[in-house]
TrEMBL record:
UniProt source species: Methanothermobacter thermautotrophicus
Principal cellular location given in the protein's record: membrane
SMART domains linked to this entry: AAA
Keyword terms: ATP-binding, Cell membrane, Membrane, Nucleotide-binding, Translocase, Transport
Subcellular localization: Cell membrane
Transmembrane segments: none
Keyword presence, Nucleotide-binding: yes
Family the UniProt entry places it in: Belongs to the ABC transporter superfamily.
Protein name as catalogued: ABC transporter ATP-binding protein
GO molecular function: ATP binding; ATP hydrolysis activity; ATPase-coupled transmembrane transporter activity
Gene3D superfamilies for the chain: P-loop containing nucleotide triphosphate hydrolases
Amino acid sequence: MRIIEAVDIRYTYPDGTEALRGINFHAERGEVVALLGPNGAGKSTLFLHFNGILQPTSGKIMIDGEELDYSKSGLIKARQKVGIVFQNPDDQLFAPRVDEDVAFGPLNMGLPEDEVEERVRDALHKVGMLGYESKPPHHLSGGEKKRVAIAGILAMKPDIMVLDEPTSGLDPRGASQILRLLHNLNEEGMTIIISTHDVDLAPLYSDRIYIISDGEIISTGTPSEVFSDIDTIRGANLRLPRIAHLVEILQKEDDLPFEEPYPLTIGEARRKLRNQLR
Ligand code: ADP
Protein backbone atom coordinates (compact mmCIF):
# COMPACT_ATOMS: atom_id res chain seq x y z
CA MET A 1 0.00 0.00 0.00
CA ARG A 2 1.50 3.32 -1.12
CA ILE A 3 1.10 5.64 1.84
CA ILE A 4 2.55 8.61 -0.01
CA GLU A 5 3.30 9.18 -3.66
CA ALA A 6 4.62 11.97 -5.85
CA VAL A 7 3.24 11.67 -9.37
CA ASP A 8 5.17 13.44 -12.12
CA ILE A 9 5.97 16.45 -9.94
CA ARG A 10 7.49 19.47 -11.64
CA TYR A 11 8.41 22.57 -9.72
CA THR A 12 9.91 25.84 -10.93
CA TYR A 13 10.89 28.52 -8.38
CA PRO A 14 9.66 32.08 -9.04
CA ASP A 15 13.16 33.03 -10.26
CA GLY A 16 12.86 30.43 -13.04
CA THR A 17 14.99 27.66 -11.46
CA GLU A 18 13.55 24.32 -12.59
CA ALA A 19 14.18 22.39 -9.37
CA LEU A 20 12.05 19.29 -10.07
CA ARG A 21 11.61 17.88 -13.57
CA GLY A 22 8.97 15.16 -13.41
CA ILE A 23 9.56 13.27 -10.17
CA ASN A 24 7.86 9.93 -9.46
CA PHE A 25 8.45 8.71 -5.92
CA HIS A 26 6.57 6.65 -3.37
CA ALA A 27 6.84 5.05 0.04
CA GLU A 28 4.97 1.94 1.13
CA ARG A 29 3.47 1.91 4.61
CA GLY A 30 6.18 0.96 7.13
CA GLU A 31 9.12 1.49 4.78
CA VAL A 32 12.29 3.48 5.33
CA VAL A 33 13.07 5.22 2.05
CA ALA A 34 16.17 7.31 1.42
CA LEU A 35 16.39 10.08 -1.15
CA LEU A 36 20.06 10.25 -1.99
CA GLY A 37 21.60 13.02 -4.04
CA PRO A 38 24.26 15.73 -4.06
CA ASN A 39 23.62 19.28 -2.87
CA GLY A 40 21.29 21.20 -5.11
CA ALA A 41 19.69 18.06 -6.60
CA GLY A 42 16.19 18.99 -5.41
CA LYS A 43 15.79 16.94 -2.20
CA SER A 44 14.51 19.77 0.03
CA THR A 45 12.25 21.06 -2.73
CA LEU A 46 10.65 17.62 -3.14
CA PHE A 47 10.20 17.22 0.63
CA LEU A 48 8.42 20.58 0.89
CA HIS A 49 5.81 19.11 -1.46
CA PHE A 50 4.99 16.16 0.80
CA ASN A 51 2.77 18.14 3.17
CA GLY A 52 1.82 20.92 0.82
CA ILE A 53 4.27 23.64 1.89
CA LEU A 54 5.05 23.92 -1.84
CA GLN A 55 2.42 23.32 -4.50
CA PRO A 56 3.77 21.67 -7.65
CA THR A 57 3.83 23.54 -10.94
CA SER A 58 2.38 20.30 -12.34
CA GLY A 59 1.80 16.78 -11.07
CA LYS A 60 0.21 15.68 -7.80
CA ILE A 61 0.89 14.36 -4.32
CA MET A 62 -1.17 11.39 -3.15
CA ILE A 63 -1.44 10.65 0.59
CA ASP A 64 -3.16 7.39 1.57
CA GLY A 65 -4.57 7.15 -1.94
CA GLU A 66 -6.13 10.62 -1.84
CA GLU A 67 -4.87 13.59 -3.82
CA LEU A 68 -3.51 16.32 -1.56
CA ASP A 69 -5.88 19.25 -1.68
CA TYR A 70 -4.47 22.70 -1.03
CA SER A 71 -7.49 24.18 0.74
CA LYS A 72 -6.97 25.21 4.38
CA SER A 73 -8.68 22.07 5.72
CA GLY A 74 -6.87 19.86 3.19
CA LEU A 75 -3.51 21.20 4.31
CA ILE A 76 -4.32 20.71 8.00
CA LYS A 77 -5.21 17.09 7.24
CA ALA A 78 -2.01 16.55 5.24
CA ARG A 79 0.14 18.04 7.99
CA GLN A 80 -1.34 15.71 10.59
CA LYS A 81 -0.41 12.72 8.45
CA VAL A 82 2.96 13.90 7.18
CA GLY A 83 5.42 15.51 9.59
CA ILE A 84 8.50 17.23 8.19
CA VAL A 85 11.69 17.68 10.20
CA PHE A 86 13.70 20.47 8.58
CA GLN A 87 17.42 20.23 8.05
CA ASN A 88 18.18 23.12 10.40
CA PRO A 89 16.45 22.74 13.80
CA ASP A 90 16.70 26.52 14.25
CA ASP A 91 14.04 26.79 11.51
CA GLN A 92 11.74 24.60 13.61
CA LEU A 93 12.36 25.49 17.27
CA PHE A 94 11.20 28.88 18.45
CA ALA A 95 9.48 28.53 21.86
CA PRO A 96 11.42 29.64 24.96
CA ARG A 97 11.23 26.16 26.54
CA VAL A 98 11.63 22.66 25.15
CA ASP A 99 8.23 21.45 26.43
CA GLU A 100 6.42 24.48 24.97
CA ASP A 101 8.04 23.81 21.65
CA VAL A 102 6.96 20.18 21.58
CA ALA A 103 3.45 21.19 22.74
CA PHE A 104 3.00 23.67 19.89
CA GLY A 105 1.73 21.20 17.26
CA PRO A 106 -0.73 19.30 19.49
CA LEU A 107 -2.07 22.58 20.96
CA ASN A 108 -2.62 23.83 17.44
CA MET A 109 -4.56 20.66 16.71
CA GLY A 110 -6.97 21.76 19.44
CA LEU A 111 -6.30 18.80 21.74
CA PRO A 112 -7.26 19.05 25.44
CA GLU A 113 -4.50 20.10 27.81
CA ASP A 114 -4.01 16.75 29.56
CA GLU A 115 -3.73 14.96 26.22
CA VAL A 116 -1.15 17.55 25.09
CA GLU A 117 0.85 17.01 28.28
CA GLU A 118 0.80 13.27 27.78
CA ARG A 119 1.91 13.58 24.17
CA VAL A 120 4.75 15.94 25.10
CA ARG A 121 6.00 13.58 27.80
CA ASP A 122 5.70 10.60 25.49
CA ALA A 123 7.51 12.31 22.63
CA LEU A 124 10.35 13.56 24.86
CA HIS A 125 10.67 10.07 26.30
CA LYS A 126 10.93 8.51 22.81
CA VAL A 127 13.72 10.87 21.76
CA GLY A 128 15.56 10.54 25.09
CA MET A 129 15.02 14.17 26.15
CA LEU A 130 12.99 13.79 29.36
CA GLY A 131 14.44 16.15 31.96
CA TYR A 132 15.09 18.92 29.41
CA GLU A 133 11.52 20.33 29.56
CA SER A 134 12.39 23.75 30.95
CA LYS A 135 15.59 24.33 28.93
CA PRO A 136 15.67 26.95 26.21
CA PRO A 137 16.14 25.09 22.90
CA HIS A 138 18.94 27.43 21.82
CA HIS A 139 21.07 26.18 24.74
CA LEU A 140 21.02 22.60 23.45
CA SER A 141 23.65 20.81 21.32
CA GLY A 142 22.98 20.19 17.63
CA GLY A 143 21.95 16.57 18.26
CA GLU A 144 19.68 17.54 21.17
CA LYS A 145 18.00 20.26 19.10
CA LYS A 146 17.40 17.74 16.36
CA ARG A 147 15.83 15.32 18.84
CA VAL A 148 13.54 18.04 20.22
CA ALA A 149 12.52 18.95 16.66
CA ILE A 150 11.68 15.28 16.05
CA ALA A 151 9.71 15.19 19.34
CA GLY A 152 7.66 18.17 18.16
CA ILE A 153 6.67 16.21 15.06
CA LEU A 154 6.09 12.96 16.98
CA ALA A 155 3.71 14.74 19.35
CA MET A 156 1.36 15.23 16.39
CA LYS A 157 1.40 11.45 15.80
CA PRO A 158 1.92 11.54 12.04
CA ASP A 159 1.87 8.34 9.94
CA ILE A 160 4.85 9.48 7.92
CA MET A 161 7.94 11.29 9.11
CA VAL A 162 10.02 13.09 6.50
CA LEU A 163 13.50 14.19 7.57
CA ASP A 164 15.75 16.47 5.54
CA GLU A 165 19.41 15.51 6.08
CA PRO A 166 18.76 14.36 9.68
CA THR A 167 22.41 13.61 10.48
CA SER A 168 24.14 16.48 8.74
CA GLY A 169 26.20 18.67 11.04
CA LEU A 170 26.03 16.18 13.93
CA ASP A 171 29.03 14.49 15.53
CA PRO A 172 29.22 10.68 15.14
CA ARG A 173 27.48 9.98 18.46
CA GLY A 174 24.73 12.51 17.76
CA ALA A 175 24.23 11.01 14.30
CA SER A 176 24.02 7.44 15.56
CA GLN A 177 21.53 8.46 18.27
CA ILE A 178 19.28 9.90 15.56
CA LEU A 179 19.61 6.79 13.39
CA ARG A 180 18.81 4.51 16.32
CA LEU A 181 15.79 6.65 17.16
CA LEU A 182 14.53 6.47 13.57
CA HIS A 183 15.05 2.72 13.57
CA ASN A 184 12.94 2.41 16.75
CA LEU A 185 10.18 4.61 15.35
CA ASN A 186 10.11 2.51 12.20
CA GLU A 187 9.88 -0.69 14.29
CA GLU A 188 6.77 0.84 15.87
CA GLY A 189 5.25 1.20 12.40
CA MET A 190 6.17 4.74 11.32
CA THR A 191 6.93 5.23 7.63
CA ILE A 192 10.17 7.19 7.30
CA ILE A 193 11.56 9.17 4.40
CA ILE A 194 15.05 10.62 4.73
CA SER A 195 17.10 12.78 2.42
CA THR A 196 20.84 12.53 2.55
CA HIS A 197 24.00 12.91 0.52
CA ASP A 198 25.76 10.42 2.80
CA VAL A 199 26.38 7.26 0.75
CA ASP A 200 27.91 5.46 3.76
CA LEU A 201 24.81 5.86 5.91
CA ALA A 202 22.01 5.38 3.37
CA PRO A 203 22.47 1.59 2.93
CA LEU A 204 22.59 1.10 6.70
CA TYR A 205 19.04 2.15 7.38
CA SER A 206 17.02 2.18 4.18
CA ASP A 207 14.81 -0.47 2.62
CA ARG A 208 14.83 1.38 -0.68
CA ILE A 209 16.82 4.24 -2.17
CA TYR A 210 16.01 6.82 -4.82
CA ILE A 211 18.90 8.66 -6.45
CA ILE A 212 18.08 12.22 -7.43
CA SER A 213 20.25 14.35 -9.67
CA ASP A 214 19.40 17.71 -11.24
CA GLY A 215 15.73 17.47 -10.34
CA GLU A 216 15.27 13.96 -11.76
CA ILE A 217 15.12 10.49 -10.23
CA ILE A 218 17.84 8.59 -12.06
CA SER A 219 17.77 5.30 -10.17
CA THR A 220 15.74 3.40 -7.60
CA GLY A 221 15.82 0.02 -5.88
CA THR A 222 17.23 -1.75 -2.86
CA PRO A 223 20.60 -0.40 -1.70
CA SER A 224 22.44 -3.25 -3.43
CA GLU A 225 20.52 -2.71 -6.69
CA VAL A 226 21.19 1.01 -6.68
CA PHE A 227 24.88 0.75 -5.83
CA SER A 228 25.52 -2.01 -8.36
CA ASP A 229 25.26 0.62 -11.12
CA ILE A 230 28.48 2.44 -10.35
CA ASP A 231 28.39 4.62 -13.49
CA THR A 232 25.02 6.10 -12.51
CA ILE A 233 26.24 6.68 -8.94
CA ARG A 234 29.34 8.51 -10.17
CA GLY A 235 27.36 10.38 -12.81
CA ALA A 236 25.27 11.86 -9.98
CA ASN A 237 28.46 13.11 -8.27
CA LEU A 238 28.12 10.43 -5.60
CA ARG A 239 30.47 7.56 -4.83
CA LEU A 240 30.32 4.00 -3.51
CA PRO A 241 30.18 3.53 0.27
CA ARG A 242 33.80 3.45 1.54
CA ILE A 243 33.52 -0.21 2.49
CA ALA A 244 32.41 -1.12 -1.05
CA HIS A 245 35.22 0.99 -2.48
CA LEU A 246 37.77 -0.88 -0.35
CA VAL A 247 36.49 -4.24 -1.62
CA GLU A 248 36.51 -2.92 -5.20
CA ILE A 249 40.19 -1.94 -4.80
CA LEU A 250 41.08 -5.29 -3.22
CA GLN A 251 39.47 -7.08 -6.14
CA LYS A 252 40.79 -4.90 -8.98
CA GLU A 253 44.25 -3.93 -7.70
CA ASP A 254 45.15 -6.90 -5.52
CA ASP A 255 43.29 -9.63 -7.41
CA LEU A 256 41.45 -10.81 -4.31
CA PRO A 257 38.59 -12.98 -5.51
CA PHE A 258 35.58 -10.94 -4.43
CA GLU A 259 32.41 -11.29 -6.36
CA GLU A 260 30.07 -8.43 -7.09
CA PRO A 261 27.84 -7.02 -5.70
CA TYR A 262 30.24 -5.33 -3.33
CA PRO A 263 29.22 -5.18 0.33
CA LEU A 264 27.76 -1.81 1.32
CA THR A 265 27.97 -1.99 5.09
CA ILE A 266 30.50 -3.30 7.61
CA GLY A 267 28.12 -6.15 8.48
CA GLU A 268 27.90 -7.30 4.85
CA ALA A 269 31.66 -6.94 4.36
CA ARG A 270 32.33 -9.01 7.46
CA ARG A 271 30.10 -11.85 6.23
CA LYS A 272 31.74 -11.76 2.81
CA LEU A 273 35.28 -11.75 4.21
CA ARG A 274 34.57 -14.59 6.60
CA ASN A 275 33.20 -16.70 3.74
CA GLN A 276 36.24 -15.82 1.67
CA LEU A 277 38.65 -16.83 4.43
CA ARG A 278 37.04 -20.22 5.01
P1 ADP B 1 18.98 19.84 -2.17
O1 ADP B 1 18.02 19.78 -1.02
O2 ADP B 1 19.11 18.52 -2.88
O3 ADP B 1 20.32 20.40 -1.78
P2 ADP B 1 17.29 21.99 -3.15
O4 ADP B 1 15.92 21.42 -3.25
O5 ADP B 1 17.60 22.84 -1.96
O6 ADP B 1 18.37 20.82 -3.28
O7 ADP B 1 17.59 22.86 -4.44
C1 ADP B 1 17.27 22.43 -5.77
C2 ADP B 1 17.54 23.57 -6.75
O8 ADP B 1 16.62 24.63 -6.51
C3 ADP B 1 18.93 24.17 -6.64
O9 ADP B 1 19.33 24.56 -7.92
C4 ADP B 1 18.70 25.40 -5.76
O10 ADP B 1 19.65 26.40 -6.03
C5 ADP B 1 17.32 25.83 -6.20
N1 ADP B 1 16.57 26.52 -5.12
C6 ADP B 1 16.33 26.09 -3.86
N2 ADP B 1 15.59 26.96 -3.17
C7 ADP B 1 15.34 28.00 -4.02
C8 ADP B 1 14.61 29.22 -3.91
N3 ADP B 1 13.96 29.56 -2.79
N4 ADP B 1 14.57 30.03 -5.00
C9 ADP B 1 15.19 29.68 -6.15
N5 ADP B 1 15.89 28.55 -6.33
C10 ADP B 1 15.96 27.71 -5.27
